[in-house]
Amino acid sequence: MSTRFYALPVDQTQWAVSSGATTIFNWEYDEGRDRLLNLYEKGKNKQWNAQTRIDWSIDVDPGSAENAPDEQIAIYGSDIWEALDEKGREELRHHMVSWLNSQFLHGEQGALICSAKIVQTVPDIDSKFYAATQVMDEARHVEMYSKYLREKIELAYPINRQLQALLDQVIADERWDMTYLGMQVIIEGLALAAFALIRDYSTEPLAKQVNTYVMQDEARHVAFGRLALRDFYPQLTTAERDEREEFVVEASYLMRDRIRGVEVWENLGYDVQRCMEFVENSEMMKIFQRMLFSRIVPTVKDIGLWGDKVQKAYEDMEVIEFSHVDPESLQAQDEDIARTLDESRGLSEEAEAAAALAGVDKARALEVQQTIEDGAQE
Q1: What CA dihedral angle connects 184, 16, 144 and 262, to 10 degrees?
Q2: Beta bridge partner(s), residue 156
Q3: N or C: less crowded end of the chain, CB within 10 Å?
């Protein structure tokens, strides 16, 4: 992405992380866990092309309320918001949609780096197989959010400080399970919930497409981390498990605090202290923050990091009720919604037949259809 689209200069915000990770080779090619290998098969079959599956011809107005409900803007309803004229609100919407999608973009690059690291460091061959499919998924997500920001929003923000701090920890840690825990469970779990808010409440069709299809991939990624860690964590000592639970608590608070949009208030010259006071006391923002943990809490419980410290933190954050949610049902729902979106956009009988013969699902039939049309033009 050209640096001219950034709200702040890239040379002031980019950074490097040193990592002393150990590469592990595994020669046991015949052994593997069935559920992870099944996930690997699904990961192969679900590959898709962002240039053809997404309808990039859709025009986007960055200042429109269609991008996301105004209620999702942290200062909505405050005297600061009420004092803005329509031009001021359009400018704020533009910067908020840029800031949010920029964080999605930076998080996806973090996921790209972490999934490549998992291929390198995880000891099990079945996990290496699936992580390899995730590397391609994450590259596609970076491509999509970059294109969306560059061509449709025409403005980008640097990485949020809290997200940068967590990525520093996750990437620098040499232990493979900490990469899973930080990225697959915490960062991607929060991202899934944020994607869902756009998928389910935005009326801007391109944003709905991008986030629906990304969620279809990300639901598998969270399932990957959940399956791998659920097998590994029972083997840890009490001290080792306690250390990981402390990390979960710290990371959860960091992720909760990253959605306050302070970079936008600073960049637009708002009274940052007054904005933050409103965010702290807004009931709407409290509900919004709680919803972002609907994917993290059930996964943390499922992998066995459910000690007193974690439960106390989630009670303090008022998200403990999500511990009763079934992670697998959420994954199935995300995949169903993506399939329904494909069907609603329409597929030709020729494309569906070709896709069936190729052994792929309807989610890839759009790509087959595009190939057919391209061939007819040559």
Answers
A1: 80
A2: 6
A3: C
pLDDT of 30: 64
Q: Which residues pair with 6 in a beta bridge?
A: 156
Q: Which two tokens stand for residue 212?
A: 């629906």
| CA dist 108 → 115, 130, 188, 206, 216 (Å) | 10, 17, 9, 18, 14
CB 178 within 8 A of CB 248: no
Closest CA to 222 of 327, 104, 336: 327
Q: 81: exposed, middle or buried (C-beta count within 10 Å: 0-12, 13-18, 19+)?
A: middle
pLDDT digits (tens, 9 = 90+) for 156-184: 999 998 899 999 999 999 999 999 999 99
Supply angle C-alpha 319, 321, 325, rounded to 5.
Answer: 110
b/e per residue, 56-74, with b = 16+ CB within 10 A? eeeebebbeeebbeeebbb
